[in-house]
Amino acid sequence: MHAPDIRHSLSSAARETHARLHGRIEGAVASYIPALAAMPPDLFGIALMTPSGAVAEAGDTRHPFTIQSVSKCFTYAMVLDLLGRDAVRAGVGVQPVGEPFNVIELDPRSNRPFNPMINSGAIAVAGLLRQTLGPDAFAMVKARLSACAGRMLEVDAAVHASEAESGHRNRAIAHLLRAAGAFTADPQEAVELYFLQCSLLVTAHDLAVMGATLAAIGTNPLSGKEVFGVDAVRDTLSVMFTCGLYDGAGDWACRVGLPAKSGVGGGVVAVVNRQLGLGVFSPRLNADGNPHRGLLACEMLAEDLGLHAFDATNSGSSLLPSLAPG
Ligand SMILES: NC(=O)CC[C@H](N)C(=O)O
């Protein structure tokens, strides 16, 4: 397919998916802090970006929301880049857990969090970043995620204040991890870094760019700059594939077949290796804490564009001219 054809088929897929799911307003906006509960519940945006920077958008793709748990895949890629796989694995595993995102239990075999996509694992990653980078850790995380989005991201101060005030469970997890030896940083500093990273504001368009950066094996499609190394991206996408959707990860892998990560702010990022970044925003969450319509949108796009990693027709591979057969 030629570039204008790709843009055209992505645009119509984004528009059609948006139109078909417009009325699907099941679920409720996250309400554990007032700053999240205030989000207009029916916003809905879908953005797609190829590694060459072709973009397609439908709906509320420029409305800001907090990245929340979607940040976990990017801080994981960052810590892998900084420390390498073995040092990171000493603090957090890569094992699917089949439990909700805020589970407190550690992997009994290792006494470490099961994986970096649940809170305990992401707080372990924050602890490793804090002990490695010191007091500048958040500035560097912000810079790296901004490089991934291709623009400077900022913290939502109100969300950050309420996360920090109400985050007793996450603080408990940080102390447990410190006691278990998952990191050596001060647990309060580690969890503060986690609260800050979760409070960064993004849009569905940003998530598409960030997904496209992973799809392009770490190179931002807009700036052309390398944000993550190839080894970090490979491990990150693998963990997103097996653990990104928490207790629903296995079902997601079968039905949708894409590495993905969701957050309680309403964002979802999904990646088609070497071909596409998907960013969806829909703040109503299902019972598992995942954006209900956001997941439906990924599923519908995967079906319509043939994006499943193990799709028999593998029609998704025709999205990128450089990879198309012939
Ligand atoms: N799933 C999420 O997005 C959780 C993020 C939220 N800030 C928490 O730590 O509980």
TrEMBL record:
Record field: catalytic activity: L-glutamine + H2O = L-glutamate + NH4(+)
Entry binding sites for substrate: S69, N119, E163, N170, Y194, Y246, V264
Single annotated GO MF: glutaminase activity
Entry-linked SUPFAM superfamilies: beta-lactamase/transpeptidase-like
Assigned EC number: 3.5.1.2
InterPro entries: Beta-lactam/transpept-like, Glutaminase
Entry's Gene Ontology BP terms: glutamate biosynthetic process; L-glutamine catabolic process
Coiled-coil boundaries: none
PANTHER family, A to Z: GLUTAMINASE (PTHR12544:SF29)
Protein family: Belongs to the glutaminase family.
Quaternary structure (record): Homotetramer.
Protein's recorded name: Glutaminase
Gene expressing this chain: glsA
